[in-house]
Amino acid sequence: MRAPRQSLVVKIIFFLAHRFFIVYVCRPVRLEDFTGLQLAWWGVGTLDLFHDEDITYVERLRAADVPCEVEMVKGAFYGFDGIVPKAEVSQLFFNSRSAMLRRGAVTGGGLANFGR
Fold it and tell me: What's the predicted TM-score (pTM) here?
């Protein structure tokens, strides 16, 4: 049995609306008001497709007096820590993120961002 054409059109509309929301609304770099952000950790590799965008966002956080720590991994691409989780560089990356979480938990300042 074929689905009615109207059902397909509705699915396409929802798919496009979802894509718009994820791509244009959920991207932190699009934030304009950093009020209430207390502590941020951002991890990015130098070969990450969004490296420059990420660094711009971190600079904006810092300009708004949001305490921000950046873990930049030379030669790393997006998702490297998930692809090779046991590599030393991935372990160091994970440890950096974990240390920031502990500091945030101890000081009571929630994390503004959790990196990628």
Answer: 0.62
